[in-house]
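Model it.
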Amino acid sequence: MSKSDQEKIKQAVDLLIDKDTDLTSFFAKDGMLKELTKNLFERALKAEMDEHLGYSKYGRRETENSRNGVGKKSLITEGGVLELEVPRDRNAEFSPVLVPKRQTRIDGLDQKILSLYAKGMSISDIKMQIQELYGAEISESLISRVTDNIMDEVRSWQHRPLEAIYAIVYFDALVVKVRQDKRIINKAVYVALGIDLTGRKDILGLWISENEGAKFWLNNFTEMKNRGLKDILIACSDNLTGMSEAIAAVYPETEHQLCIVHQIRSSLAYVSYKDRKKVAADLKLVYGSVTEDEALGALSDFDLKWGKQYPHIAKSWQNNWENLVVFLQYPEVIRRIIYTTNAIEGLNSQLRKVTNNKRVFPSDDSVFKTLYLTIDYITRKWSMPIQNWGEAMAHFLIKFEDRI
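Modeled.
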């Protein structure tokens, strides 16, 4: 803001204070601030009409066109509904810039609608909220149009170009309920969170499906490659069906680390409560090992101790061993980044708060709109690289010198 604008604002404030204005009533719902806003709009519209006709209201007319009274217009603003008098001309050629024809709300209200939608509120709930906040009655169809307008932005975001290389990409899923063919069904929304070579986070995309599999993941990885993603150094995921095969097909040099946290949860799922702490402590000896040989020894000891009672645990670790111990190749700073999955877990926790509010989504598009808007708010705060990234990158530059 310029110094002259600041001075004008100061003079206006001084005038209000000097006149002993009751500030409580000034800021009240239908107080002076609302009337002041209405007057500012109307004065600006009159100035636009002067510019349009080429002469002021009482000036000399040099055109056949002239003023023709005013029309009434209701404008929904963040301060409430303004009943404006909009000037008209006899030739019906006047097209205001400040409040264009057929505009019934200011842009800030659209942002408020999208903000409420991003919190998982239904269209009917948003209608009630706007009524309570601004005293404005808006239709559910208007709210739908505002949220539908975001879909082009969603599609553009989903197909935007990606970085050529990501050091780490996490994949995770959250389950949502969607209405489809007059039924309510569970669908999984898969989220890809990348860490680029500067250590900054980026959400690469969202995909929704009833069923996962190699074909599903092959399509998703092919899509990312077509968007410019040429290489992933390390991919981290739960043991998603078909994921390993799809990674090998599209990014054959990528190391695939299965999520240790998910593996532990799966291992403890059918362990009795009285044994759970002991089993968890013995599993920690496996994934807390310094080397793969040490981890294999710890798993062998675990199987000897718990194999008869819980045979499925050691078997699951053995079956997925190659993808569970990728992180053991790396120093501690990278290990923590890979196997804790705090980044993707934190993101999905925030997304779940929104999807839990929604309960049932009316369509897949509704899921995408809600999550996209939520992601937009979340990622605005992402500016710094993850902790100790410089140390991690130094190791990557040595290990992957021919790929970075």
